Amino acid sequence: MKSMIPALVIGLACLSASVSSARADAARGKEIYTKVGCYQCHGYDGQGGNTGPRLAPEPMELDALKTFIRNASATAMPPYSANLVSDGDVADIHAYLASVRKPPAGKDIPLLNNP
Ligand code: HEC
User: Can you tell me the distance from the alpha carbon of 89 to that of 107, in angstroms, rounded to the nearest whole number?
Assistant: First the structure.
């Protein structure tokens, strides 16, 4: 009986992973992010640039992201209504932005540390 516990834990972990990925899909989020043009101002990996601030790898909370893109001022960034980007789409975009790999710290890049 004791030997079944790890298998049960792993099984539950897989189950919860598949449930959460059913709610927000980073790969789909990347497609939408590209399709609706977020990349044009924020970069393909949400790295930011002259045209828009960095969004990844640590995006704002999902609710804040949703509120922001629905109510963008339109002077700097166009607002995205739910007809264009549904709440589910925003959740997927959020999952994508959160999945972007963190860049290494400057001290860990040898070229930057050569005297
Ligand atoms: C035409 C250029 C443009 C496009 C397209 C665009 N943005 Fe932006 N975005 C901006 C600019 C410029 C700002 C900064 C000015 C501001 O805060 O209003 C901004 C700000 C943001 C912020 C706030 C960042 C912060 O830390 O304050 C978020 C989040 C964001 N954009 C997400 C998105 C998403 C998601 C999309 C696609 C659905 C998108 N943007 C499309 C230009 C753009």
Answer: 37
> Closest Cα partner for 69 from 24, 32, 28, 26?
32
CA-nearest of 88, 96, 68, 92 to 80 is 68
Ligand 1 within 6 A of CB of 90 = no
Query: Does 26 contact ligand 1 (Cβ within 6 A)?
Result: no
Q: Tally Cβ neighbours within 10 Å of residue 113.
A: 9
Rounded distance, CA 90 to CA 83, Å? 12
Q: How confident is the model at residue 17 (pLDDT cuts 50, 70, 90)?
A: very low
Give the pLDDT of residue 2: 60
Q: Output the pLDDT for position 3.
A: 61
pLDDT at 74: 85
Which residue's C-alpha comes closest to atom 11 of ligand 1?
52
